[in-house]
Write a structure and sequence with these properties.
123 residues; Transcription Termination Factor Rho, Rna-binding Domain, Chain A, Domain 1; 0% strand
Amino acid sequence: MNNSNDPLHGVKLEKILTDLEAKLGWKEMGELLNINCFINKPRLKSSLKFLRQTPWARSKVEILYLKTFCSDHPAATKLIRGAIERKRADAEQYKQKNTGHKKDSKSDHNNDDTFTWPTLKKN
């Protein structure tokens, strides 16, 4: 790990995947993240290719890495919250673009389709 404000600074995607695979395994990563490249014949090379081309999936993997290995880093919580907020904002923009409806703040809490991150078991 490094001393910058970003615990992911200088950490390559390949290292993120190999560390997560060593700690959790492909099966648990697939269950936690619900990403098909970890469920259906998981391989490092194909997973790297998919994650480099798919920002939403890469974001999930980076958040899992932060929660698994960098939970003590002071900036990790801020980064995780920021990523989740960006995901929600992107989903809302997509929804508005495709439905033509404005956001209704009253129904926002009642109709919550957002992904909930599972709590990791500490060994």
